[in-house]
Fold this sequence. Notes:
It is a single chain. The chain is α+β, with helices and mostly antiparallel strands. The protein is built from 20 helices and 12 strands. The chain has a 6-stranded antiparallel sheet, with no helix packed on it. Strands 2-11-4-5-6-7 form a 6-stranded antiparallel sheet, with no helix packed on it. Strand 6 and strand 7 form a beta hairpin. Helix 1 crosses helix 3. The two termini are 37 Å apart.
Amino acid sequence: MQTLASMAKQGRSSLDKVGLTKPIDGGIIYSDVQLEGISKTNFAIDLISSSSSRRGGGGMPDIALRITVDFDKRKIERKARILDKWSTAVVSAPGFMFQRSLAFRIDIACGQTKYTITINGRDELYFNHVLQDLSQVDTISVLGEDVSIKSYETKDTSLLLGTVFPDQNFDRVADAKRMKKAIKEKDVDLKAVTDILVNRSNEQRQILKWQFKNDYKKDLDVELGKRLSGDMSDVIVGLLDTPEVYDAKCLYKAMEGLLTDDKALIGILLSRDNQRLNDIKMAYEELYKRKLLDDLNSETRGHFKHLLVSFAKAERDESNKVDFVRARRDAKAIFEAGEGQWGIDKSEINDVLISQSDAQLRATFKAYDEISPLGIEGAIEEQASGDLQEGYLAVIKTACNPAKFFAERIYQSMQGLLQDDDQLMRVVISRSEVDLLRMKTEFYNMYSKKMHDYIKEECKDDYVEVLLGIVKTI
């Protein structure tokens, strides 16, 4: 909570704090701004993209949202300004929700397609918005002749927005019986098995495995694995693994052949939090009687190895604190290590990426974009190549918008001459209870096609029916 000692000149107070919230994406409301104050006169609140004046020819910056509270007309007006044009919506507020000189609290929840405005914790208004590049909103301003803002806060109200949820009517005994019936002597009733597994959370699947073992003295995953083969076996057994065991198996598979699957190593190691990484290392050692870090050291090389091993050590800062001075300093160091010279100093970039929290990295990338015409992603694409480039971009994208990063991976898995079944399966299973719902919105925003339809059209293998059951049509 930040207390404002006074307002700036002409009743305007710019607070560079919105950038601390997680990126706004997915069509789901999960970033929140809260203001508390008192006003004697009409006032307005602006959410602004500070960099948009470059696009608008140097004029007034784009305003993603202006909320004007009009005491005289007892109305709330919403405006958006894009390239010097205003879009307006007026909402008459029955009974009104403000009174002059009385304290108010406004919560503004931001999503890809709408805002929800809550007044004093109870009255809600909904507005669609038209600003396309909403992720660039980084400033909030309050305007008024006699308005006092007592406190200001940004909150992360993000939820796990997957497509698989716990079954509220879960009956482990009944599910175990259905599984027993579905497992024939030599084959499996895949429809019955799929219907159960894609509609139960991972925790419920673990309970089901225990119940099956208790009732029939056999391991459910083993019984299914013996009767299935190839990708179908991988996806069914993968759903029955715990998340850390599944990741450990994927990492082992990525390194067991002559060539490593760098996409698998990047997608897992550079996107999991410290607790998950520690769980993966324990599962890996229990499964294979060897240490994950040892295998990474032997199977990868150079700066790419340093990047993966550093993340796998699970020692990154995970706080939400942001040091803006350090962000500008790190951005300058990255610029001078790459664009600012001939060639690229990979150690300098590595040091920043492996040590900073996601919140700090977002601030660093924003600071970098202010000094580089290429932007951070453009600079990496120009200055690095191969697996190292892909690793750097993965860190950048997962720090800023993991749902978009994994949506891109779904799309890429079915592009080119060879379909990457492992990547498709790995992303859908691992994100099913995390952010797959957000990923579906990001996918549609990028490719103008529903993820479910795209997978169905591009992948004709039998196992895809299981994945479609996870992705769902909603």
